[in-house]
């Protein structure tokens, strides 16, 4: 018997935009080496594996090269699959037991709201590898949390024009690098991009987990608890965001693009 797989574009309502993730929902646990092999075969930034556990689902995420502790877009994709494929009724909260604790998702019309832990960044030393990784971009501020560097540039144009040196970036002792700036228009509060070459992801199209750092950073500087963000990758994506100081509530849309069965 094969393993079902559904591919979902997350943080968008248009096929072939946002961030694609593969989702495998099984009746029970899948062996770790098989999960990693499937993720490598799918060759997306994340493949999610879920199975029923207690009152919710156990959830793990894999890049093409390794398991990660937190992933926003693949959690959004998994929640979308649970409702759209009939695993959960639309009015039931999706609860996930993960390496980052319990995460939840709720369907709100055409949007899905997820509750994640806030991971505020703190001031960090500007490392030579970081300067080289960003090709000497005009850096305004450097922060970091336990997972990522957060680099603030002076304009949206600088964020969009950035061409990182991935070889240098992979040398950093971090999951990845978030680059951000205020947005140029009133449509969004801030923009960002995210790079994680050490984890097999040169640029991630739309990164929910990066907003666990971005939201507390911009909430303090903008004096807001509700924001709209734009991730300025080639595929791009939009997130509605809210914080209560302890958690980040991020909302996005999702669309199914592929259903199949892995012959494994």
Question: Can you describe what's shown?
Answer:
By secondary structure, the chain is α+β, with helices and mostly antiparallel strands. It contains six helices and 18 strands. The protein has an 18-stranded mixed beta sheet that branches. Strand 7 and strand 8 form a beta hairpin. The model has no long low-confidence stretch (mean pLDDT 96).
- Helix/strand/pairing category: alpha+beta
| Secondary structure tally: strands | 18
| Outline type | globular
H/E element sequence = EEHEEEHEEEEHEEHHEEEHEEEE
Distance between the termini: 7 Å
The percentage helix is: 10-25%
Low-confidence stretches: none
Structure, briefly:
This protein is of the alpha+beta class and 264 residues long. Helices cover 20% and strands 42% of the residues.
Descriptors for this entry?
about 260 residues, 6 helices, 18 strands, alpha+beta, globular, 18-stranded mixed sheet, about 20% helix
Topology:
Blueprint: E1 3-10, E2 19-25, H1 32-42, E3 46-53, E4 56-62, E5 67-68, H2 72-84, E6 94-98, E7 101-108, E8 111-117, E9 122-123, H3 128-133, E10 139-144, E11 148-153, H4 156-161, H5 166-169, E12 176-182, E13 190-196, E14 201-204, H6 211-222, E15 226-231, E16 237-243, E17 247-252, E18 254-262
Parallel strand pairs: 2-3, 4-6, 11-12, 13-15
Antiparallel strand pairs: 1-2, 1-18, 3-4, 4-5, 6-7, 7-8, 8-17, 9-10, 10-11, 12-13, 13-14, 15-16, 16-17
